[in-house]
């Protein structure tokens, strides 16, 4: 994966009010941390960052104040309603240092089991791997063409890629093909049923006290 | 399938206000595409079921539809031509309380064009504005 360069500026303002003003000018706040060095508060142009994000890259050269640091995009906060990036976390990473991160799993081909009438379930959509920052794969492609009915592909059966180690549980299922389950028809009794009201059961002592009151 | 809780602590609930945006259940978690609400509101169990049925007519067998909301809230009403007072009415139907950003349905196993068509059918059954969203890349 190609490492792109991102221009950023140092920022001195912090707090929700200041950051809101910053976002109104088309910039987004970010933080650079790691390697037991001081945290650096940054800001960058939103459109420039989003363009880089769309390329699928995870490693960046962040430049600010005549400094250039290699960093991994650790976390992105989104506003899910407006679909905007709110904040970005960068983690300092050396290019010869192995990193742990999650990578999406993509399925390729049409399974034999599906042709026989089965249903393909993509259980694990992303997987945790360990690799060098220069060899981060965009995705891990898994061929499902030979996957028959009632069969599954586990993490241990994933294609071995050079310099990449799978961290997720080796026995975990990535994708499986199973028989389609027909849903039971709802009976009339079930349709007319009312939810049961949970009532606290009185303790033995309380019960006798209530009985005395009634008397 | 009738959507309502099996057991409840109280049969009747107060109406409550719906404030702010959804801070949870606001991402595509189970499928590839999701139908996200853009307005606050109540979605009745009947509307949810209508959406599911309309989607199942256009969906392929290998695709999977997930309903992300559940009608936990009971709504009571008084019978017609009844004088005011005499206590709260009986529960009539069940609703899911939805905030802007809540993911309502998710689909996996189909392409974007088909997902768009399916969600368009569901959107006609919804009482609020909705939109299609795609699963975000993991980090």
UniProtKB/TrEMBL annotation, chain A:
- Which Pfam families does this UniProt record tie to the protein? Ribosomal_L25p (PF01386), Ribosomal_TL5_C (PF14693)
Claim: Ribonucleoprotein is one of the keywords in the record: yes
Q: Which domain of life is it from?
A: Bacteria
**Alphabetized InterPro entries for the sequence:** Rbsml_bL25/Gln-tRNA_synth_N, Ribosomal_bL25/Gln-tRNA_synth, Ribosomal_bL25_b-dom, Ribosomal_bL25_C, Ribosomal_bL25_long, Ribosomal_L25_dom, Ribosomal_uL5_bac-type
User: Which CDD domains does UniProt cross-reference here?
Assistant: Ribosomal_L25_TL5_CTC
SUPFAM superfamilies, per the entry: Ribosomal protein L25-like (SSF50715)
User: What are the residue boundaries of the Large ribosomal subunit protein bL25 L25 domain, all occurrences included?
Assistant: 6-90
For whether the record's keyword set contains Ribosomal protein, the answer is yes
Name one cellular component (GO) term. cytosolic large ribosomal subunit
**Subunit structure of this chain's protein:** Part of the 50S ribosomal subunit; part of the 5S rRNA/L5/L18/L25 subcomplex. Contacts the 5S rRNA. Binds to the 5S rRNA independently of L5 and L18.
Function description:
This is one of the proteins that binds to the 5S RNA in the ribosome where it forms part of the central protuberance.
Q: What protein does this entry describe? A: Large ribosomal subunit protein bL25
Where does this protein come from, organism-wise? Candidatus Brocadia sapporoensis
The gene is rplY
TrEMBL record, chain B:
Q: What is this protein called?
A: Large ribosomal subunit protein uL16
**Role noted for this protein:** Binds 23S rRNA and is also seen to make contacts with the A and possibly P site tRNAs.
Query: Could you name the Gene Ontology cellular component terms for this entry?
Result: cytosolic large ribosomal subunit
Q: How does it assemble?
A: Part of the 50S ribosomal subunit.
Keyword tRNA-binding in record = yes
Name the Pfam families on file. Answer: Ribosomal_L16
Taxonomic placement? Bacteria, Pseudomonadati, Planctomycetota, Candidatus Brocadiia, Candidatus Brocadiales
Q: Which domain of life does this protein belong to?
A: Bacteria
Q: Which InterPro entries match?
A: Ribosomal_uL16, Ribosomal_uL16_bact-type, Ribosomal_uL16_CS, Ribosomal_uL16_dom, Ribosomal_uL16_sf
Q: Which PROSITE patterns match?
A: RIBOSOMAL_L16_2
Tell me a Gene Ontology molecular-function term this record carries. Answer: structural constituent of ribosome
What GO biological process, any one, is recorded here? translation
Q: Which family does it belong to?
A: Belongs to the universal ribosomal protein uL16 family.
Which keywords annotate this record? Ribonucleoprotein, Ribosomal protein, RNA-binding, rRNA-binding, tRNA-binding
């Amino acid at each position: 994966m190609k490492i792109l360069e991102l221009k950023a500026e140092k920022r001195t303002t912090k707090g929700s009010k200041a950051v809101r003003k910053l976002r109104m000018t088309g910039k987004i706040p970010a933080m650079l941390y790691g390697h037991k060095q001081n945290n650096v508060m940054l800001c960058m142009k939103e459109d420039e960052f989003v363009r880089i994000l769309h390329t699928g890259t995870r490693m960046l050269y962040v430049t600010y104040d005549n400094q250039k640091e290699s960093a991994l995009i650790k976390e992105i906060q989104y506003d899910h309603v407006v679909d905007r990036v709110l904040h970005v976390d960068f983690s300092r990473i050396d290019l010869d240092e192995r990193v742990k991160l999650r990578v999406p799993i993509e399925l390729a081909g049409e399974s034999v089991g599906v042709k026989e009438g089965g249903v393909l379930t993509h259980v694990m959509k992303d997987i945790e791997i360990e690799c060098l920052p220069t060899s981060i794969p965009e995705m891990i492609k898994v061929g499902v063409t030979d996957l028959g009915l009632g069969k599954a592909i586990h993490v241990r059966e994933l294609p071995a890629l050079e310099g990449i180690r799978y961290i997720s549980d080796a026995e975990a299922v990535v994708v499986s093909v199973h028989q389609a389950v027909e849903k039971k028809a709802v009976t009339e009794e079930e349709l007319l049923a009312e939810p049961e009201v949970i009532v606290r059961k009185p303790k033995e002592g309380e019960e006798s006290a209530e009985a005395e009151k009634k008397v | 399938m009738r959507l309502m809780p099996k057991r409840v602590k109280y049969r009747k609930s107060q109406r409550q206000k719906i404030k702010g945006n959804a801070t949870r259940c606001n991402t595509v978690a189970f499928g590839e595409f999701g139908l996200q609400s853009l307005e606050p509101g109540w979605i009745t169990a009947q509307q949810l079921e209508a959406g599911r049925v309309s989607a199942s007519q256009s969906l392929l067998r290998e695709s999977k539809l997930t309903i992300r909301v559940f009608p936990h809230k009971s709504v009571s009403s008084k019978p017609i031509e009844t004088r005011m007072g005499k206590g709260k009415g009986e529960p009539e139907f069940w609703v899911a309380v939805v905030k802007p950003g809540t993911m309502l349905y998710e689909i996996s196993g189909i392409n974007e064009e088909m997902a768009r068509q399916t969600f368009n059918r569901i959107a006609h059954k919804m009482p609020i504005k909705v939109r299609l969203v795609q699963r975000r890349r993991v980090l």
